[in-house]
Amino acid sequence: MDERMLTFGLFVGFVLVTLGITVRARAGGKGADDFYAGGRMLSGPRNGVALAGDYMSAASFLGIAGIIALSGYDGLLYSIGFLVAWVVTLPLVELMRNTGRFTMGDVLTRGARGQAGVRAAAVVSTVTVSVFYLLAQMVGAGALVSLLLGIHEGRRFLGMSTGTARTATIVAVGVLMICYVMVGGMKATTWVQIIKSVLLMAGGVVLTALVLGRFGFDVGAMLGSAADASGKGADFLRPGQRYGQDVPGDSYRTIVNKLDFISLALALVLGTAGLPHIVNRFFTVPDSRAARTSVSWAIGLIGAFYLMTLVLGFGAAALVGRQAIVAQDPSGNTAAPQLARAVGEHVAGRAGGQILLAFIGAVAFATILAVVSGLVLASATSLAHDGFGQVLMLGRPRESQEVAVARVASFLVGSVAVVLAVVAQNLNVAFLVALAFAMAASANLPAIVLSLFWRRFNAGGVVAGVYGGLAASLALVLLSPVVSGKVDPVTGRSLSLFPKGVDFHLFPLENPGLVSIPIGFLCAVVGTFAARRETDPAPYDDLAVRALTGAGSH
Amino acid sequence: MVGDSQPARCQGIGRGVTVPPGHYASVACDERFRLLRRRFAHLALWVLCGSLGWYFAYVALSGFARGFMARTVVGDLNVALLLGLLQFVVTFALTGAYVAYARRRLDPLAAELRAGPPGGVRVPRPVAEVRVPRPAGGVVVPEPRGEWNKAVRPDLGEVG
C-alpha cells in the first residue's frame, strides 16, 4: 500500500476518535465552567499531559529535530529555552489559578468585575498573540502536508495538485479545529491534547529506541557519527552554527548576532507564562495544588521529549544526512519523518519504513491540529468572557448567552485564521512562533507579574503595559531584517518577507524581546504612576490572600 | 507580595481605622498569612534565581565563551553538551524541590487559613463599615468563624 494512504488513514482514524470524544463532551455539560474550563475537575496529571500537548507544537517536534539535524548543537539551545521557561511558570501557576476564573483578564482585574479598559487590553493581546501563533501552525500544516504526502509538482494526491492539496489541508485543519472547539469546548480540546501527547511520546520513544539501537545504545558513537556525516566535524557539537555566529573581521555583525541570540533566549524563557492557550489551561483544575502538579507533569514530559528530539536530530544528521534532508525541505522540518523511514527500513525493510513514516506523519498532523484547537479556544474564551461578558454586558451577562458568544467567536477566529493562512501560505512564516513568544513576554508577562506582586499596580498600568509591550514587539519586528533588507550573501536572494530591494529595516535584531520586554515593564510602571489616584490597599490584600490561600477561588 | 512582611494597613488597625471593603483583605494581617507569604516569596525567589541564573549563565557561555564550551570531556562529549544536559537535570531537580517544599510548608498553612481564623470575634456584616477598636493584646482581626471564606462575594455568586 502507498505510505501516503497509510498516513492519511491513520490521521483519519485520529480525527474520528477525537470527534467521537468531542460529541460525547458536548453531551456532558453546557455551562460556562464546562465550555471554558472543562468543568474545572481535571486531575493534575491529566491536565499536565494536556499542557504538554498544548505546548509541544510542530515547531518543537519537527522544528527542533530539524534544527539539530542541520545546525547540530544550536538546536539544543532552542529546546532548553522552551523547557526552562516552565520553571518561570511554576510560581505563577498557583497564584493565577487561585485569582482567575477563565482568562488572563480575570487575573489582571484582580478578580473584580468590570474594568472595561483592562478587559479590552486582555482581549486584544490574547487574540493578537493567538492569531500569530495560529497562522504559523496552519501555514506549517499546509507546507507539511505536501512534504509528508510526497506531493511534488506534477504528482497528484486524491486527484489534487500541490497547490490545491495545500489549500485543502489548511481548510480541513481549520474546519476540524472549529468543530472541536465550537462543539466540545475545553473538554474536547483537552482530550485532543491528551491523545496527541500520548501519540507523540509513543512515537518519540519508538524512534529514539530504534535510532539508539542502530548505534548499539552508545550515545557517544551516535554523536561522533553525526559530527562526521555533517561535514563540520567537532564544530557540529559546539554552539555557534546558527545562533550568535561569529563574523570574522566584522565586530558589529558579531555583536548583533550575539545580542540577537540573547534576545531569542529571553523571549523563549519569559514568553511561555504569557501564552494564552497555556494560561487558560491553569483554570481547568480544582485547586492550586492540582495546578502545581499539572505543571510538574508537563515539565517532566516536555523535558523527556526534548531529550528525545536530541537523539532524533543527531540521529537524522547521522543516518539520513544533510543533503537528503535539505533536498526535502531546506529548513529541515522533515528530518524526523525522514529518519523514521530510514530506521524503519533498516528494521523491517521497505514496508517497515513506510509504516513508521506514516505513523510519524500522522502524529505531526495530530500535533498541529491539537495546538491550533487550543489557540482558537483561548481566543474565543477571551472574546466571550472578557470582551462580551465584562465589557459589552458590563459584567452581567447571562451564562448561556456568554457561551453562545464563545461558540460564535471560535467560528469567527477559526475562519479568520484559515483565510489568513491560505493567503500567507507561500510566505516564510517560521519567525511567527518566535514573534508570538516575544509578544507574550512583552505584553502579557509584565501585566501578570505586576498584578500579582506589586501593591500599587493599577488598571492604568495594565493597559499601558499590555498595549506598550504589544506595540513595541510588533513595531520592532516590522522594522527588523525579518521583514525587509536581509539578503543572502552567497545567492543574493532575499531572506526577508519583502523581496530584494525593499529595505526599511532600522532595528538590527531579528528577535525583539531584548528591547520589547523591558519596554513592556516600563510602560506598565509609567502607566501605573500616571493613572494613580488614591492608593487603596484593600483590593491588593484581598488578591494576595486569595492567591496564596485559594480562599474563595472557584 | 514579595518582600513586604508587614502590610501598611495592618499597622493601622490598632489605631482604630476602618477595615477596607476587600473581602479577604483582613486576613492579610494574620500572622500565619504573613508567614505563608514569606515562605512563598523565598521559595519563588530561590527557584527563579536558580533556574534563570543558571540558564542565562549557560546562554552567555554559549555566546561568548566558545573556546571553553568546545573543550572535550570524554570522547565526543564536550563541555557545551555536558552543560546542556545539566540544564535538564537542574530543571527537573528545581521542579521536584519546589513541589516538595510547597506541599510540606505551604499547603498546610494555606489550608489552615482557608478554614477560617481561630478565636475570631463574630462581627456583624457588612465588614466594610466596621470600626475596629484597639484590641488589648496585639493585632487581632475580628472575623466570623466557619464559612467566612464563602461569605458574601456577590461577584462570585452566579456561575461558580
Automatic annotation (TrEMBL), chain A:
It is found in: Cell membrane. InterPro entries: Na/Glc_symporter_sf (IPR038377), Na/solute_symporter (IPR001734), Sodium:Solute_Symporter (IPR050277). Belongs to the sodium:solute symporter (SSF) (TC 2.A.21) family. It holds the Pfam family SSF. Signal peptide: none annotated. Keywords: Cell membrane, Membrane, Symport, Transmembrane, Transmembrane helix, Transport. The chain crosses the membrane at residues 6-27, 48-70, 76-95, 116-149, 169-186, 198-217, 261-283, 295-320, 355-383, 404-424, 430-454, 461-483, 513-531. It is a multi-pass membrane protein. PANTHER family: CATION_ACETATE SYMPORTER ACTP, SODIUM/PROLINE SYMPORTER-RELATED. This is Cation acetate symporter. Its main location: membrane. Coiled coil: none annotated.
UniProtKB/TrEMBL annotation, chain B:
InterPro entries: DUF485 (IPR007436). Keywords: Membrane, Transmembrane, Transmembrane helix. The keyword Secreted does not apply. The chain crosses the membrane at residues 40-61, 81-101. Pfam families: DUF485. It comes from the Bacteria. This is DUF485 domain-containing protein. It comes from Actinomadura graeca. The lineage of its organism: Bacteria, Bacillati, Actinomycetota, Actinomycetes, Streptosporangiales.
